[in-house]
């Protein structure tokens, strides 16, 4: 069975996966925001592409001219807008280049891999720091789709092919399905395996300004973790999760800039059914900081749907009309709040139990705590992958 595992091709894990939604690296932040609203899938980031032949007038079926250079999600937009200089004039900030959202992201977070590559090659790339692997989808498309590609930078086609994401979660899920070949490794504790990261925990205290967590939120996207919220004694009481923040919209930028870490956690959990006092607090604090231009961002969170068409004018993008997108504001309903207890384990938890827990919550990390709730560290998919790689 081990030989079968090593011979597995990455295309086998890509069956049924949707084609990547994409943006050109030359697009603006507003283009990204418009696309994120239109597609409305917070669990899958947009791919960002550099296609040289587009600017050189070459035909679209020239092989090797398109390259996925990164990925963008709603958290990237929120963190960008939450900077004070951008909140002073959101309309101007949204017209800045999309490439600014990719600054500070390490090279190799997104990597290309051919469909016939082995699963072992994919594991090695993730061990080197890759989060998302770009895999071609074997399909044939009519010439009409190529014509659409010429006029619409958000097409799913690049070099005449469609691509999909292969993620760390996909590989961990596959490893769980064939966990027996790794016995007795799965029954060992996460502490004994040395995969509990105790040194690089991203954390703030409950009463700290949420703005102090802004660089940590960006780091948590890169590290595929989250920002822990601790009480005065160092116990884990919550988190600012990129996955949860992805379920918000750009109005959360104003909340990050004005609320405490604890209040921001409440804001994210209540998004779509915001308490009036919380919205009022954000507006008042924006005014106190002379950031009245950002108040318009908060209108959406207050649920003023009647005004949503006019209020979103600051971030409208011509790509909606050019590509036939639906446009309009992404609607949110109150989501079920995921308790921090759901993504916690203990140092003595077994590897297989932690894998099941993380996969069931679709979380790329899990907090490790003692019995009294004191935060010990965090376990990630990437750390798990290194352990499995050592035993192949």
TrEMBL record:
SUPFAM superfamilies assigned to the protein according to its UniProt record, in alphabetical order: CBS-domain pair
PROSITE patterns (alphabetical): CBS
Cited Pfam families: CBS
Segments for region (Disordered): 304-336
Domain CBS: start-end pairs: 338-392
Annotated Gene Ontology cellular component terms: cytoplasm; nucleus
Keywords from the UniProt entry: CBS domain, Repeat
Keyword Repeat: yes
Keyword Repeat (UniProt): yes
InterPro entries assigned: AMPK_gamma/SDS23_families, CBS_dom, CBS_dom_sf
Name of the protein: CBS domain-containing protein
């Amino acid at each position: 069975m081990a030989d079968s595992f090593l011979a597995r091709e990455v295309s086998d894990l890509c069956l049924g996966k949707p084609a990547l939604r994409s943006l050109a690296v030359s697009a603006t932040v507003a283009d990204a925001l418009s696309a994120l609203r239109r597609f409305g899938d917070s669990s899958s980031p947009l791919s960002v592409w550099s296609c040289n032949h587009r600017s050189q007038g070459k035909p679209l079926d020239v092989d090797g001219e398109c390259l996925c250079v990164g990925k963008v999600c709603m958290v990237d937009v929120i963190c960008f807008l939450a900077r004070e200089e951008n909140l002073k004039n959101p309309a101007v900030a949204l017209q800045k280049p999309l490439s600014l959202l990719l600054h500070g992201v390490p090279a190799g977070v997104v990597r290309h891999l051919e469909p016939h590559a082995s699963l072992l090659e994919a594991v090695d790339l993730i061990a080197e720091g890759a989060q998302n692997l770009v895999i071609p989808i074997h399909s044939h498309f009519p010439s009409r789709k190529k014509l659409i590609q010429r006029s619409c930078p958000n097409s799913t086609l690049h070099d005449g092919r469609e691509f999909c994401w292969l993620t760390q979660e996909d590989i961990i899920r596959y490893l769980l399905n064939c966990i027996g070949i790794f016995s007795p490794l799965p029954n060992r504790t996460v502490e004994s395996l040395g995969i509990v990261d105790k040194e690089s925990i991203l954390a703030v205290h409950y009463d700290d300004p949420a703005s102090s967590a802004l660089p940590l939120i960006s780091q948590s996207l890169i590290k595929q973790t989250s920002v822990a919220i601790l009480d005065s004694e160092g116990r884990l009481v919550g988190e600012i999760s990129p996955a949860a923040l992805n379920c918000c919209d750009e109005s959360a930028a104003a909340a990050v800039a004005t609320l405490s870490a604890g209040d921001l956690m409440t804001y994210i959990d209540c998004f779509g059914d915001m308490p009036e006092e919380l919205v009022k607090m954000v507006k008042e604090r924006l005014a106190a900081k002379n950031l009245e231009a950002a108040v318009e961002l908060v209108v959406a969170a207050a649920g003023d749907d009647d005004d949503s068409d006019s209020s979103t004018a600051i971030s409208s993008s011509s790509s909606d009309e050019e590509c036939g997108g639906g446009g309009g504001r992404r609607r949110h309903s109150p989501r079920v709040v995921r308790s921090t207890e759901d993504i916690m384990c203990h140092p003595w938890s077994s590897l297989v139990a932690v894998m099941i827990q993380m996969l069931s919550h679709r979380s790329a990390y899990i907090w490790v705590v003692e019995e009294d709730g004191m935060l010990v560290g965090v376990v990630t998919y990437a750390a798990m992958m290194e352990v499995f790689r050592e035993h192949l």
